[in-house]
Amino acid sequence: MPAASRRKRPNPQLKQPVQERSRFTVAAILEAAVQVFEEHGHAAGTTARIADRAGISVGSLYQYFPNKDAILVALAERHLDDAEAQARRLLDAAAGGDRWPLELLLEALVAAFLALHQQHPGLHRLLYEGGLLPEQTRERLRQLERRYGEELAQVLARHPEVRRDDAELQAWFVIQMLEHFTHRLVLEPPARKLRPAVAGELKTVLLRYLKG
């Protein structure tokens, strides 16, 4: 396991949810926070509103999180957990015995990035454009991009139709293009009639880039 993976993640919670009831309470707080931040943004997304939406007292909320920024960090960590699990499944499948055709690989990558970004776009904007996350969480995101960029480079290097070039650089470009375009598509979507074609166009752009 890479050294980066063994580092402790930032843990903003005061009380660890050991018992089933505690786990349920934390889950309720996080789901309520998603809704409140989506509706009201960060400034007006108070702990009182989050507690009310979760159906608990503010005092109960403070047993688990010291403030709303700690809740935001927990949401970011959960989002990164989802991204990591999704990337792991996709790359493991792509590198398996039945190697995927390049077009299928890119189609799966585009679909995975879109699915990840389409979950709560308002919260996504808050997490990654609001400048509210601590450096430790941002560093975890960079580590994930580096690690899976290296693995994607290995997958691309085994595809004969990919032009022989710097595979790590190619993988980096693919990830950055996916991040940028799916991010913009979700947060600043084009006209509704154009949206169904965007995923296919993005796959075509990536395919032409890799084939040269």
TrEMBL record:
<feature type="domain" description="HTH tetR-type">
    <location>
        <begin position="23"/>
        <end position="83"/>
    </location>
</feature>
<dbReference type="InterPro" id="IPR001647">
    <property type="entry name" value="HTH_TetR"/>
</dbReference>
<protein>
    <submittedName>
        <fullName>TetR family transcriptional regulator</fullName>
    </submittedName>
</protein>
<keyword id="KW-0238">DNA-binding</keyword>
<dbReference type="Pfam" id="PF00440">
    <property type="entry name" value="TetR_N"/>
</dbReference>
<keyword id="KW-0805">Transcription regulation</keyword>
<dbReference type="InterPro" id="IPR041669">
    <property type="entry name" value="TetR_C_15"/>
</dbReference>
<dbReference type="Pfam" id="PF17918">
    <property type="entry name" value="TetR_C_15"/>
</dbReference>
<feature type="DNA-binding region" description="H-T-H motif">
    <location>
        <begin position="46"/>
        <end position="65"/>
    </location>
</feature>
<dbReference type="InterPro" id="IPR009057">
    <property type="entry name" value="Homeodomain-like_sf"/>
</dbReference>
<dbReference type="GO" id="GO:0000976">
    <property type="term" value="F:transcription cis-regulatory region binding"/>
</dbReference>
<dbReference type="InterPro" id="IPR036271">
    <property type="entry name" value="Tet_transcr_reg_TetR-rel_C_sf"/>
</dbReference>
<dbReference type="InterPro" id="IPR050109">
    <property type="entry name" value="HTH-type_TetR-like_transc_reg"/>
</dbReference>
<dbReference type="GO" id="GO:0003700">
    <property type="term" value="F:DNA-binding transcription factor activity"/>
</dbReference>
<keyword id="KW-0804">Transcription</keyword>
